[in-house]
Write a structure and sequence with these properties.
Layout lengths: L1 H26 L3 H29 L1 H21 L3 H29 L3 H31 L4 H18 L19 H23 L2 H24 L13 H31 L4 H21 L1 H4 L4 H18 L9 H28 L6 H27 L4 H32 L14
């Protein structure tokens, strides 16, 4: 169930990368509308992931997982029937919120079935492979459907997949963490509301920068700053807390969050921009661009499976640092591309980045759950993925600004070097945080007494 729902969510997330031009033409979208078509599901994911994780840890992972499948299915139906850009964008935002319910709770559900280290490693591998496979097949599928003028069929297939996931949840076993959890603290309604609104405003501001609305973006950033201040104040003076405050000083949790953000702003953002470069810069079709992008994402899925036996023998920190370092090398290899460069010139870098991404995603899946208390597994997954999608939103916005107004081929180099630098900086910071965690004289007792080692 974890692998299937993650695959479906990533399939939905990556699909428009392959045919945003088709969608924009179908709806008669403006430049800002096209930007929102690409960003809409990312916004839904980034805004709701952490909040969904906090709620799931309070009312039960299975409930939120099932609700997420229902919301995802309904939103996919609306996407398939949409006739205007605003309706389609809103449906995609809601689909992202529905996917959140599955992503934030999936690893926690699997962890509740078995706390054995080998089982957790197997789940992390399946999660990583499903993520890579979904991202690889999404653009390919939309590109193929474009050939027969059936772009709406993609969202019909997503709706059927969401319905299948919902039906499968009825067979999930009962047990601790699957139904209603026993909260160790009161639910922080004020903090939950402020967090959700802050993320919504902040991510919208980031997208508006990319859509070309500087005045609107500036106002939204100012509002986001005020909301963030209110959120911090509520956590300091309120009687309830969203999460255990000690987590923010817990080095492993910090390292996992940095790695998630570095993944988003580095390789995910760069590869999200790659289709635009391949189509507009090198003149490829959407199907060709999607197929070439699969050299990265498909390789990451295969790598997660092939390396599973070996990665279980090393720490998750080694996976994170090695993965980020490998991504840096892979991105560096796809610089220096000219308008006459063939596919062979891009393949080595995409494959190296794909191998590293498979290792990196597996490490992120392990650490998202391992660095938080057992009762907060969904929150840990939500926090890690929130960092990833916030990083992706910032990275793609920066890429669009850097590559706009000049030669797109030359702009590609600047975008890639930015992604490589962000990946390398994240690897260095993760290393520093991990070393400080090992040398700390007294790490905070984050994990509850009943939690597995």
């Amino acid at each position: 169930m974890v692998a299937g729902s993650t695959f479906l969510a990533m399939l939905a997330y990556s699909g428009p990368l392959g045919n945003v031009v088709t969608l924009s033409q179908a709806f008669g979208s403006s430049r800002a509308g096209s930007t929102w078509i690409l960003a809409s599901m990312s916004v839904g994911l980034a805004v709701t992931l952490l909040a969904a994780g906090v709620v799931a840890d309070r009312i039960g992972h299975r409930r939120v997982f099932r609700l997420g499948a229902v919301v995802f299915t309904a939103a996919s139906v609306v996407s398939a029937l949409a006739g205007t850009t605003p309706v389609f964008v809103l449906a995609r935002v809601v689909a992202g919120a529905g996917a959140t319910g599955m992503i934030a709770t999936g690893l926690g559900l699997a962890g509740a079935v078995s706390a054995h280290a080998r089982h957790r490693a197997t789940t992390a591998t399946a999660w990583s492979a499903a993520m890579g496979a979904g991202i690889a097949l999404g653009p390919l599928l939309t590109g193929l459907l474009d050939l027969i003028g059936a772009w709406r069929g993609f969202y019909g297939l997503l709706a059927l997949g969401g319905l299948a996931v919902w039906a499968g949840t009825r067979r999930l076993p009962g047990g601790t963490g699957l139904g209603r959890s026993a909260p160790s603290r009161r639910f922080d309604l004020a903090g939950f509301t402020l967090l959700t609104v802050f993320l919504a405003v902040a991510v919208t501001a980031i997208v508006e920068v990319r859509a070309g609305g500087p005045v609107t973006a500036t106002v939204l950033f100012a509002v986001a700053a005020l909301l963030f201040g209110a959120l911090i104040a509520s956590q300091r003076i309120g009687t309830a807390r969203l999460v255990d405050p000690r987590l923010f000083t817990h080095r492993p949790f910090q390292a996992a969050t940095v790695a998630g953000f570095g993944t988003g702003i580095g390789v995910v953002a760069t590869m999200s921009f790659a289709c635009t470069f391949l189509v507009d810069g090198l003149g490829m079709s959407t199907l060709q661009a999607g197929a070439l992008l699969a050299a990265w994402s498909g390789t990451s899925a295969v790598a997660a499976l092939l390396l599973a036996r070996h990665t279980a023998k090393v720490s998750a920190t080694v996976q994170l640092v090695t993965g980020l370092g490998g991504v840096t090398v892979g991105l560096a290899l796809v610089t220096g591309i000219s308008a006459t460069s063939g596919i062979g010139r891009l393949m080595p870098g995409l494959i190296v980045a794909g191998l590293a991404s498979g290792l990196l995603n597996t490490g992120l899946a392990r650490q998202a759950v391992a660095t938080v208390p057992a009762d907060d597994a969904a929150m840990g997954t939500g926090a890690n993925n929130t960092a990833r999608y916030l990083g992706s939103s910032i990275g793609v916005s920066a890429a669009s600004i850097i590559a706009t107004g000049g030669d797109l081929v030359a702009g590609w180099d600047r975008v890639v070097w930015l992604g490589a630098a962000a990946s390398l900086a994240s690897a260095i910071l993760v290393t520093i945080l991990s070393r400080r965690a090992r040398t700390s004289p007294a790490a905070p007792p984050i994990r509850s007494p009943s939690s597995p080692p």
